[in-house]
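Q: Joint fold for the lines below.
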Amino acid sequence: MVFWISAALLTVGATLLVLLPLTRRVREPVSDNQYDVEVYRDQLLELDADEQRGLIDHISGEQARAEIGRRLLKSAKAAEADKAVVRPQKSAMREWLTLATVLAIPLISWGIYTKIGSPDLPAQPLAERLSRPPDQNTPAELIARAEAHLTLNPDDGQGWEVLAPIYLRIGRPADAVTAYQNAIRLNGDSVQRQLGLGEAMTAAADGKVTPEAEAVFKHALQLDPKDMRAQFFIIDGWMQQGKLTEARDLIRKLLVEAPADVPWREQAQAALTRLDQEISGDAPDVSDVEKAGPDASQVEAAAGMSSQDRAQMIENMVAGLAEKLKQSPDDVEGWERLVRSYVVLNRPNDAIEALARAKKVLSADKIARLDGVAEDLGLKGELGDPEKD
Amino acid sequence: MTVELGHFALVLALALSMVQAVLPVLGARRNDDRMMAVATPAAFTVFALIALSFAVLTSAYVLSDFSVQNVFENSHSQKPLLYKFTGVWGNHEGSMLLWVLILSFFSALVAFFGNNLPPALKANVLGVQAWIGTAFLLFIVATSNPFARINPAPIEGRDLNPILQDIGLAIHPPMLYLGYVGFSVCFSFAVAALIDGRIDAAWARWVRPWTLAAWLFLTGGIAMGSYWAYYELGWGGWWFWDPVENASFMPWLAGTALLHSALVMEKRSALKIWTILLAILTFSLSLLGTFLVRSGVLTSVHTFATDPGRGLFILAILVLFIGGSLALFAWRAQTLEPGGLFQPISREGALVFNNLFLTTAAATVLIGTLYPLLLESLTGEKISVGAPFFNLTFGPLMIPLLAAVPFGPLLAWKRGDILAVAQRLMLAFFIALLAVAVVLYQTSASGVLAAFGIGLAVWLMLGALTDLALKAGIGKTSVHVMLQRVVGLPRSAFGTTFAHFGLGVTLMGIVCTSTFATESVLVMKPGDTVAAGGYTLRFDRIDPVKASNYNEDQGRFTILNSAGREVTDLLSSKRYFPVRKMQTTEAGIKTFLFSQLYVSLGDPGKDGGVVVRVWWKPWVTLIWLGAVVMMVGGGLSLLDRRLRIGAPAKARTLKARVAA
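A: Joint structure:
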């Protein structure tokens, strides 16, 4: 409301200021040529002054005086003639224009403003927003308030502790790093804080576990050697750095040590298989599989562990996958992986059988894709038509 | 609420501007004094409304009101207070608002001081100002509204481009705009004269100070921009022939020509039609500059936002005003009364010479700037017209012009005696030759160009002083009388001397820096030293520092003199701004008299060292000091409020002297 009143006052005021001259009589109008006459007169006076100051010598002064005099005479004559020009005091056009102006100023301004303005949106200076009661604040404002509080009380460890995970969640990892560092400095060392710090550092590096972050995770592990998250991050880091063997060994150790029903078992095993393949040169790329072939001795040498353990682990993994595909068979990638695993394990019959089973449940386009894989793996010839039943 | 009041004030200003654009001009055509009288209060009101609007936007910046999109996009609550102010125009929308604020301010000044103007002229001038204002206000409201709001408001802004977080932003754009927009007044006077079909006697008396003021600000704006680029971009260069720089340089060249031709017009009532054309061209180039920089045609630090809609709008404004005014000129120019006559060898003739060379130079820069753009838009081929083109075209044009500068002020009006003038300039000429010889002797054959450049600079400076000395009556009277006469000289005489002297100073700086600068790029480890310009620079260490909105790696250096004693320390740093994820270089600069040691920190090397670029820039500050001297000249001339009359030299002077 205050806004509309102010806007109306501005409009009325501005319109009046502009309209005033339209309704007021102008004092005796003067011809433009008369203004010229005045200028030339001033010039003549100035010329005298310059001559007295010695800026212009007498001869030049006379010349200039003659020139200006000629112009002055001409203008004076024109000014005399101008007296005959009619200057309208009353004019229908002016009256129309006055009316149009009175209407145009509010119409244009209010018309445009109501289209583009946001009259109901109050100004929101930051300081004022932050001083409102907390229950009226948005989450972002609450964070800003906490920040303001911490700027003034940088030794409030509890504050940093609360803010740090929030930063991490809203995608400000660099701030999260600072917050965790402060929390550790003020509240002391703890597994959770070190883990958070490491995680924030990793997020700040776009998911890369930097050597600094790895050191933090290792430190967390010293505090609690059983902590899984720290070990997973370390494994992740090793995989990024290409330390595949180390990564695989650690996964394997975790799998052996952990109870059978831990939720991460399946994932870890999948990672293990992938690592095994990569280490032996069996990257998921099919051509690589063909080139390298399932050379058990190589794999074993690279693995550096007993072949019995290794075979067992792989068997487990493959069996797990086969089981999973029984439960949810519409998974062409799963079938692909299974077939490949059988080929790698040198169990062609199982591979062919798996293909046949897959063809029963998959749609035509997915079968075509699987056929392509089979061909690449050299299974084509041995594969008969799928059983028809 | 207050934010929206500023928004409303802007729209109301647009409505009033439309009234101001129509009523006074119609009134002038119909000899209707009341309609003409609308112009004055309208100009005041529009200025007041835009000022209100600008103040509201500024307060939104200072109070970090992120419900205003413009503030959100270009500010940050932790930004230092100065940059909250300057950030207002550190973006497209805000800078356009500053543009119209200055335009309306100048209109208000014309309205305020224009009581002695013929009413029709005043009405037309303010009307034309309002045409420009209306076009730009429409542009702002339609495509670049600084008052667009966001609901709900974000809690933190995106910060200002770090390169702009500098004191330079407080000075460079306002000065440049004062220059650009100042020429709008000259333009409006020119178009008003064309509309009216007559050039009033007061015309030139009004146009010259406006030209001077605009020229003064533009000079300062360009010099400041150049110095800013020099220390902020970290390349050690002060002029790159970058299209954006050219965009400001073209109006300066045309404006300098206008300044001189307006001088002839005021003093001698000559060159009237040419002056009108120049006024139109100068402002057209200012508009073109605004267009090139604002439309996103050129990408550079100045391009805050690219939006084809804006580009088209500005292009339309450009076509309307440049095309319209030139068409009006073609149509109406012959109705104007031509000015007085003069002989080729005369002060007027010298000023025509100046005008020809300056406008040709401006045209050269224009071609060099626009040709690559046109070629790219027509054929898609990207070419770069860089320093070599301008050195080959602009340079040769400047040499005869600069060589002729000392002659100009010494020639008499209407008919001059070039031999007599040459005699008076003998001393300056010989000293300049001496300078050439000394430089050649010192630098051997390699410095031929430099020697002549320095000679030319000396010639300019001494020529300017010769003019002053002759006006004081050197050789004719005693020292005491001379001093008295110097004190009695009008300020405009000093203005000429200062401006021409400053030109020489700038040239001296340019020549010395371009030819004698040394550069070394090397990897330095703490304790390493490198020699530069008679000093030795030692790299001490790098300190990480955290400021409110950036982190900084401060490289600490110590400068040792030839005796190995520590003279001073030097700080060069790299700043990282996390909000924008941008890095800036803060060059470390130490000034020794006029020369500078310039250190720019590069990326860290592998083995703990850091890449450091070190320049020794002999006499580099003269480039900008010269500009300051020129500005002082312009200011002195501006302060001289006498009427200017140039007395013509009498024909057959000899005979007259004999007769006397």
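Q: Anything notable?
A: Chain A is about 75% helix and 0% strand. Confidence is low (pLDDT under 50) at residues 284-305, 381-389 of chain A.
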